[in-house]
């Protein structure tokens, strides 16, 4: 196993090696490599249809893949615990479900339709405090604003505490203030909790300020590196601006 | 049953003087909370149309049972409805059609097959009317016992796994990212619905049975703010609608299933207006 961690002296890291996904005869992802560390924020970018969601679904274990996805702490392999924040506006507006209910559905062994214990309630308040959202506890999930819902989903993804946090298009449909608020929060979380954060995005304006590594994906991993290097690379221009190639 | 009968004797209610009404009351007391409990899951999981289709397949099962000369055609109906539910889940995950299209395919095929078999060789359809309209006054103690058993099973499943069934209905993607089996939850739930719908079909009536699965939660949604209220209101509406419907049906001499549905519909209208008023 040691060869996998060669060149990685960080306390913990996530490595995706030679990952390929085929659906039928279509190759969606072709021998992808990805490597990131704790406390790092990485962005996964690429044109529509590049395979960003498929890569995330592979890491989440929702699609079959060939290759290797490993997580290790201090050189030892560990079962990877992932916190996932889905793209936000997917809750039915009319569902009578409070934020507290959502947490209990996800994490409680007792039916969420029974009254919560005081301890359970307190625990969810603590989770929400991480994203400064404790006032949302009894609000209906369907009545939350986009930003509030995102914070709730973020708090949910952090309970139980994951090794890596994956966010699917967290910046889409959020205004500039909202983007900075979210990125500041992610920045705070990676420092206080020392977790890796991987997000897909179509918005490149936040990359240089907040992101350590950018992965440019288009079926293959075209480029990975610091935001500036990726944005100025010819691969970036090719991936996004060659007409006809875009799906 | 005799304990229930003597309990009924104690109540100063005129309509309980007949044994069949005592049975019917007990039946309502079993199926209303059962439907009230299942209802939020059906509505949240957007399965209202599916449960309707299940009723149709159950009818086909009855027709097959009658054709084969089974003494209890309801058994073939349960088997067929469960098979229908499983086949539906299978086809849904392996096709590109939206689920309402697949439900439409299954439902219309089931009805066509049922009517074809029922009328085969020029036989009269009238013997099937009881399944379409339903007759709660014909219910027997054994049938109530069977449904009470199903109720018990549902309660146990709910106590152990209601979160695992509910989260996939609310947000399948989130559920699977947290290690919940979305397909498994759907299968368990559809099989439960298949069994419940089929067993209560001949009391409530195929044509209105879906209203019992949809209306309690639909009304509860209008006023509930969280899952606890959602379930509680749904149970309450189902129970009140069930009792009021049965009593009304007794005094005016109409189908109890239809009367119950109408009360539930009234509940929906009232809660809808209430919601409007609250803004």
Described by strand count, sense and barrel closure, the largest sheet of chain A is:
6 strands, mixed
**Oligomeric state:** heterodimer
What is the helix fraction of residues of chain B, given as a range?
A: over 70%
Largest interface: A-B, 29 and 24 residues
CATH class of chain B: Mainly Alpha
Quote the beta fraction of chain B: under 5%
Name the CATH architecture of chain B.
Orthogonal Bundle
* CATH class identity of the largest domain in chain A: Alpha Beta
Q: According to CATH, what is the topology of chain B?
A: ABC transporter involved in vitamin B12 uptake, BtuC
How many structural domains in the coordinates of chain A? 2
CATH superfamily of chain B: ABC transporter involved in vitamin B12 uptake, BtuC
End-to-end distance of chain A, in Å? Answer: 39 Å
SSE blueprint and pairings:
The complex is a heterodimer of chains A (247) and B (279).
Chain A: E1 12-23, E2 26-37, E3 41-45, H1 52-59, E4 66-73, E5 76-78, E6 82-85, H2 99-107, H3 118-129, H4 146-157, E7 164-167, H5 176-193, E8 196-200, H6 207-210, E9 213-218, E10 220-225, H7 227-232, H8 234-241
Parallel strand pairs in A: 3-8, 3-9, 6-7, 7-8
Antiparallel strand pairs in A: 1-2, 1-4, 4-5, 9-10
Chain B: H1 2-10, H2 19-44, H3 48-67, H4 73-93, H5 99-118, H6 129-133, H7 141-170, H8 172-177, H9 182-204, H10 206-223, H11 227-252, H12 256-278
Helix pairs in contact in B: 2-7, 2-10, 2-11, 3-4, 3-5, 3-9, 3-10, 4-5, 4-9, 7-9, 9-10, 10-11, 10-12, 11-12
